[in-house]
Structure formats: structure tokens, C-alpha cells
Amino acid sequence: MNRLKTILIKGQVIFPGEVIGFSADDREKLKVQLEAYDNDEELFLLRFKSDDDTERKDSAYTETNGVIAKVESVNEKDNGVTEVLVRAVRRGKLKSMDCISPNEYEADVEEYVESKEGFDRMIRSLHLTMRGYSDVNERFRKNFLNDLLAVKSLPELLDGLRLALNLNYEKRKIINAAKTPIEESMLLMEIMSEAIDRKEISDRIKSEVDKDISKNQRDYILREHLKVIQNEMAKNSGYENVTDEYEEKLENIKLSEEYKEKLKKDILRLNTSANNGPEGNVIRTYLDTVFEMPFGKNSEDINDILRAKKILDEDHYGLEKVKDRILEYLSVRILNPDGNSPILCLVGPPGTGKTSIAKSVAKALGRKYVRISLGGVGDEAEIRGHRRTYVGAMPGRIVEAIKNAKVENPLLLLDEIDKTSRDYKGDVSSALLEVLDGEQNKTFRDRYLEIPLDLSKVLFIATANTLDTIPRPLLDRMDIIEISSYTENEKFHIAKKYLVPKEIEANGLKDVQISFSDKAIRKIIHNYTREAGVRNLSRRIGDICRKCARESLEGKNSFKISEKSVFKYLGKEKVRYDEVEKEPKVGVVTGLAWTSVGGDTLSIEVNIMSGKGTLTLTGNMGDVMKESAGIAKSLVRSMAKEYAIEDDFFEKNDIHLHIPEGAVPKDGPSAGVTMTTAIISAITGKKVRADVAMTGEITLRGRVLPIGGLKEKLLAAKLAGVKTVCVPKENEADIAELSNEITDGLKIVYVSDIREVLDVALVK
Questions:
Q1: Quick check: pTM over 0.85?
Q2: Domain 2-111 bears CATH identifier 2.30.130.40
Q3: Which fold, 488-570?
Q4: 227 assigned to active site
Q5: Active-site residue (options: 323, 368, 713, 718)
Q6: Known catalytic membership, residue 456
Q7: pLDDT of 155 over the 60 cut
Q8: Which of 484, 538, 628, 670 is catalytic?
């Protein structure tokens, strides 16, 4: 380590071999340089980190790397100016720096090269990169390459390479910041590699431009050659001309003469146009699409209602009302095949088997099955197709589905019809009106095809998770079949009969002894899934089967999945069921809600505080639920005298209504009675029975209106330990249709007025 006098510089980066000049009309300003010249001493040149800030002159404001230099000459000019030339000799690293006096500094400097490990390998890499760089830089190849390749010392090679590359100021700063010769070598190779890449890209662009200049001439020649080749291939296949094949297909297609004439004109245009040009390709694509359409081709229906019933029973457990409705529908089609059958729409939560029912119907009738997913589709052209005048035009999904089915009468599943969207490109649901109308779809005209297509023979089945988002005109064209949530017992039988065998086969365990106990299946259903359908249940069984598959390859031959071993394969329980309060409380009421994954309990809490009559709502409520809260407050105010509520109570007190789990969105009118009960309980101080739950929409006059999703709500009530449920009187017929498995253990109270609810719920 050396102790050297230090000069601070800005705006320049100095490397070994380079010269920097200092000049001043006052020799005192060059005192350090002149003393070093007189005493034959070395100096340390150090650069400020910033070119703008030189007020602070300590090591925190300087670079770590600098150069050790020698004063080469001192010249006195005639005008009194002294000029000092300093040559950088080698690089050094700053360890510490002290200010001796104003504008005089000394620094402890160590050598830049601490170790020579890896130098030989890096020299070889630099040589290889320099050869590549010389191919794209003629000046470097002529003036520097050979001399640099002869250098065997890495620091010396770097000194020469820095000068040869003629680096700009910004790159010199980056190079100067390198901590070791190895790091500096990597930076210099990166600079040379970038130059090589730029040259390659430039050459490639130039080559492409040159190609484009003669592209038109070349394309013309190729098109002519291709035309000759295609005609020769047509001759080899028995046709004199490439259009002869289309003319033969035209003779056999089952279309009216009007549309045959139009197709003849297209074939003639193809024959006279550049066969492989833009126009020829458009015509060819259109003709191929038309001739692939199954005009007049129909599959033969299997009109056996007993067979259909057997297939539905084999493929699906339970769903008796759904299967009965489908069998009724099929019976009508068998007896009146020419009649306009309604469009079926299967509505239910995810995973309840809507798509698989459609497949079973297709299987029962012996029809081709095709599916169109409408989720997220917002472009009307997806249904009606694009006009041929557009670039990249194609037929709509309906035409594509029938073309793929290769018959005019497939079973076409319109999946997720409730998830279509509407944007500036049109309304998909409006386009579907014609498709699903038996009076209009006999002459459905796709914009691309431009030939009427008879859709009356197609058996349409739609699926949806909810009816709320389906426009009313479209809903009126469909016959709704609701598929409700499965009970735990139904899930058990589905898992045992269908899911377990399916997952065992899917995971390659057919030849392995594996069995699931009944208790294990029930535990998976109750503690590891929470859904209306069985999709997640199938996944959890699959998880266990995959783990067993791995263990079988490790030597285990048999598996018995018991209730205790479920934890081993699936970990801790994933589902927690909210239980109702154990003791009656003021202002806390249990409601029932329907969600996309089934029913759920909804705890509603109300607090009363001194204030100015403000109603505060929290818990991520939707607009409909907020309106229900407002109605509940107004209803309570109108009933103030009945429940001995003071006249000025609502002017002096605030009401805060909260639904826990604020991160979960909630909406719908069915919490109206629950909110009203909670508000009255909080105001009057009367406790609400803990074992009572309720659901129903409320009016300003206190009437309780009917709601949906009763099956799911009652199942949720049972799981939560509810004993008594208040439901709207008008839903009594819906309750009567439910199985005893759902209603057993529940006392169901039918109510038509809020006062009846309060009589049941409030503790006397």
C-alpha cells in the first residue's frame, strides 16, 4: 500500500497510457504537480462520482478506482501560464483519503490487481471476442488486432483494448467502476458483443430489404410455376384443371339452383384469377368451407326411450326430476320429430353435471356431440361470422360446429350462455335469438357462408350457472331445467359409484389393490370440499390416487384409504363450517344465503349508538342488499309504536349494520327479514334465538316475499346446527318437492309477514 498525494478531477476518466494536462497562471494552484515533478514522485488521480457536485471533497464523493500517474513535463508559456502534462501509469484502488491542507489531499492506495487467478482463461476469451469484433470493425482489425493478440499480460491487454475501442464518456465511467481485471474484461467483451450483434442485425435488415426489392418479380414467377404444378397434380388425380374438383363437388352438393349458380361464379373467378394470389386464396378458402358443410346429411336418431333412461341412470346418480324432464322432452321428439322442440337450458352451480348430462343425451339419441363455449364471447361475429370482404374472414362458431359434426342434426351444447358479454362489436345474446328460435333458425344465414342453413334439426342444449345475467328475450326462448346442489349423501354415492373408479383408472391404479372406505369418502366430502357439485371432490380423490401411484412404484402393493389415513394424503382439514351462536344475543341474527358453490349461513350484526340517525352498512354488500337494509330501517320506523320505540329514537341514534367476512361480496334481497329482525332486536334489547335462521325478501309494508335457492340454504342451515328455519309462505310448494334427507331435523316455519318472523325469533 502506498501513501500518495492525490488530485481530484471531474468530467474525465483517465486510464493507463493516457495523458491529462493541468494549466494555471498561478503556480501555487499547481503546487502538488510541481512538487511531484521536482521530487520524481507518483501521484494518484481520482474522479468525482458526480460531475456536478464538487463542494464536498472526501472519499464519500469520489470513485474507488483511480490511476497512479507520473508528471511527464512542465512547460512555462510566454503568457505566464504554466502547463503540466501527467501520464497515467497503472490503476489503483482508494483505501482512505485525508485532507492535509486546503486543496491538498493524500490517499492510501493499493494495487488494482490483487490476484491473477483466472487471467489465462480470460485472455483466451478476450482473444476470441476480439477476433469476432474485428470482423465488424475494419479499423480495429487493421490497427490493433495483431498487436493486442501478442500481449500475454491481462492488465496490459486491458490497457491496450480500452484505447483501441475508443470508448465514449459513459462507457468509460462504467469500465472505471470495475473492481477487478476479470470484471473489467467481462464489461469490455459485452461492449464488443453488442457491436457484433448490431452489425448482424443491420446486415440481416439489409438482406431483407434486398429481397423485398425483387419480391414482386419472384412472386409472379413462382405463382405461374405453382399454377402449372397444381394443374399437373389435378391431372394426376383425374382432373384436367384445378377447378374441376370444385365443379364435381358442385354437382353433388344438395343446394338449390340459386346458390349453385353463385358457387359457379366463384369457381369461374378462381379459374381466371391468380390461383395462389390473395384473391385466389380467399375464393379457395370459401369454396373449401362450403363444400365441407354437411348439406342434406343427417344422422339417424335412436328412438328408444328405455335405452335413453338406462344411459341417463348409468351416467348420473340422483337428479331424478332433471332426468324425468329430459325423458319427457325426448319422448315428444320421438312422437313428433317435425315439431319445434323447446331449447333446453340446464341451470345450476358449477360441478353439478350439466355438461355430462348433455353428453348423455347425445349418446342416448345416437347424435354427434359438439360444444361451443360462450364464456367471455363479446363479438357478434363469433355467432354470425365475418363478411368475406374482411381480411381473415371466417364463419361463425355455429357453422364451424356443424361443419365439424359432419351432419346437419348434431346435439350442440351452448356452454356458459350466462357469461356472454356485450361491447362495441355487438351483442352476442341478440345474435343467439335467431339461432334459438324455432321459427327463424330454419333459414339461418351466416355472413361468411351466405347460404341459408337449416338449424331446426339441431338439438340445442344450453348451460348456465345463473339466470340473472341472461337477457329476458333469450331466456323466453329456452325451457329451464334447474339442477340444484347435491346433498352430502348424494355426493357420497356419486363418489363411490363414479368418481373413485374414474380416478383409479385415470391414475393407472387398475392393477393395484386400492379401496376407499365409506367413512373416508364422507370425511373427504365434509372436511376437504365445500361446493354445490362434485368437481373438487373428484380432485381430492385424484390427489390421493396420485400419491398412491407414486408409492406403488416405490414397492407398495395395496392401499386401504380409511378415515384416519385421509389426513396422511390430504393434510389438515380444509373446510370449516360456521356454527350458530350457542346463546341468544341482542342484535345478532343468522340468515341464509345462496352462493355459486352452494348455500351458506349469513350472520348479521347490528349496533345502536348515539348519533344523528345515520345508517352505516359494512361487509361488502351489493346494491340490492343495501336497498334491503334501507327498506328494513324504514319498516322498523313504521312499526315503532308496536314495539314501544320512542318517536325521536331514529333522530338521536345511529344504526350500524355489519355482515362479517367483508372480503366476500354479498348481494341479493333475501336478507331483508334478517336485517329487520336484527335492527328491532338491537333497538328493543330483545334477544334473538340462537337456533333460528331465516330467509326472505321484505317489503315496506312488512310482507315476506319468496326467494330462490331453498335447497342449498336448508343444507347450510343443517350443517350450522340450526333447528328452526323461517321461510316465506309462498315457498311452501318448493319445500314440498325437497327430499326428506334435506328437511329431516329442521322445523320449518312458513311466514308471510315480518311480525310472524319476530314472534318465532325473539326470546319472549
A1: no
A2: yes
A3: Helicase, Ruva Protein; domain 3 (1.10.8)
A4: no
A5: 713
A6: no
A7: yes
A8: 670
